[in-house]
Amino acid sequence: MRLAGMDVHKKVLMVVAADSSAPDVILQRCKFGTGHSELQRLLAWVQEQGVAELVMESTAQYWRPVWAVLESHVVLQLAHAQSNRAPKGRKSDWADAKRLVRRLAAGELFLSYVPEPEQRDWRMITRARQALIRDQVHLHNQIEALLEQASLKLSSVMSDLMSVSGQRILNALAEGQTDPQALAALADPRLRCGSEVLMDALRGRFTAVHQLLLRQLLLRWSTIRQHIGDLNREAAQRMQSYTGVIERLIEVPGIGPEAAQEILAELGPLAAAFASSSNLASWIGVCPGMQESAGQNHSGRCAKGNRYIRRVLCQVAQAAVRTKGCHLQVVFRKLVVRLGYNKAVWAMAHKITVILWNILHRGARYIERREAINPKAVQLAIQRHLKALRRLGYDLSPQPATA
C-alpha cells in the first residue's frame, strides 16, 4: 500500500510517497503550489502514484484547502505538528514529509479528528455565533463604561442595561434627549427601583461626544444582534433532521438549545468517532492527564483538548449544579467540600461528558436518579427549552412512538 506525507505551508506543498512496508525508502517526491490549478495537479499526481493514505501536518488553516480537494479521493490523516517535531538543527521540508510517512506507518503520530463536511459547516456556524456573542458582551461593557464616564448610573438601578426599558432610554440618549424626567418616563412602570431613583441615576454630564459614541455603539449592537439571529435560523435549518437528538440533549440539567446545538456540532449526531465515553473525555480534556517517569506520575493536569466543547461543558456544569433537586447537584455538593469549587465543577463536566456520550452514541435519554423536589418545575423548564427551540425555527410536531 502506498503512503504519502505532505509538509504544508502557505504557498508551497512538499509531498513524498513511499511503500507502507518500507516507509524509509522514498519512491517519489514532488513540490506543488497552493492555488486551485496546483491543487488539481496534486490530485492527479496522488492518483497516478496510487496513494491509498496521505498524512499532513495541521499547519494553521493552510491544510483546509488541500483537505477539501483530496478528501473524496484518498484516505486523509491530519497530524499534530508537535508529534512530527524534528531534532534541533536537522529540520528541512523534505525531511518533515518523510518523517510523517515513517511515523504514520509506526503509529507514532497524534492524529486529529476531522468531521464530515456537514458537521464542519455546523461548527463554522456555532463558532461564529459564539464569537459574535463575545463581541456583544464586549459592547455591553463599553456602553456601561461610557455611561459611567458621563456620570449616568443606569446600570446601578437596572439589572439588565440592554433590557427593553434600558434600550428605550439609551436610544433616547443617543438622539439627544437628556431630561431625566423624560428619560425615566420611557422605562417600564414595574421597574423595582422606582421613578425617583431612576431619575436620580439619569442626572449626569452627557455631552455631544458621549452622544456620538453611544449612537455608534448602539448601531454595532443592533447589527451584531441581527447577525446572531441569522446564524440561529441557519443552524436550526441545517440541524432540523436531528431535532430528536437536540430534544434529548436539553433534558439534561444545564443544557439549553444553543448549548445543545454546539454539542451536536462539535461531537456529531452519533459521536461515532469515539468508541467509549473514556475516549471522548480524553479527547475533550476533562479527565486526569498522565506525566509518568520512572514509574511515577508527576502530574495529573488535564491535557489540552477541544477548547470549544470544554467551554460549553464548563458552562453546562455550572448551570447544572445550580438546578434544584437534580442528581448532579447532589454529587457536586459532596465533591465541593473535598475538592473546592473549581475542581468540583470540572468533575461534573466529566460526568456530563459520560451522559452526553450515552445520549448520542447509544440513543439513551436522561432520567433523574432521585425524585425531583418539584416535578412541575422540571416540566416547566423542559417546556421553556422547547419554546426556545421553536423560536429558533425547529419543527417539534409530535412524532409516532417507536419501539
Brief descriptors of the model:
403 residues, two-stranded antiparallel ribbon, alpha/beta, 55% helix, 11% strand, 16 helices
Overview in brief:
With 403 residues, this protein is of the alpha/beta class. Helices cover 55% and strands 11% of the residues.
Describe it for me?
The structure is a single chain. With 403 residues, the protein is α/β, with parallel strands linked by helices. 55% of the residues lie in helices and 11% in strands. The chain has 16 helices and seven strands. It has helices at residues 36-49, 63-70, 93-106, 117-149, 154-157, 164-174, 180-184, 195-201, 208-238, 243-249, 257-267, 277-284, 307-320, 327-339, 341-362, 375-392; strands spanning 2-8, 12-19, 22-33, 51-57, 75-79, 292-293, 296-297. The strands form two sheets. The chain has a five-stranded mixed β-sheet, with helices on both faces. A hairpin with a 2-residue loop joins strand 2 (12-19) and strand 3. Helix 6 (164-174) crosses helix 9 (208-238) and helix 11 (257-267) runs antiparallel to helix 13. The longest helix is centred in the first third of the chain and has 33 residues, at 117-149. The two termini are 45 Å apart. Mean pLDDT is 89; it is low at 399-403.
Query: What is the helix fraction of residues, given as a range?
Result: 40-55%
Unreliable residue stretches: 399-403
Biggest pleated-sheet summary: 5 strands, mixed
**What is the count of DSSP helices, taking H or I runs of 4+ residues?**
16
Rounded average pLDDT: 89
Number of strands: 7
- What is the radius of gyration? 27 Å
State the strand order across the main sheet: 3-2-1-4-5
What's the order of the H and E elements? EEEHEHEHHHHHHHHHHEEHHHH
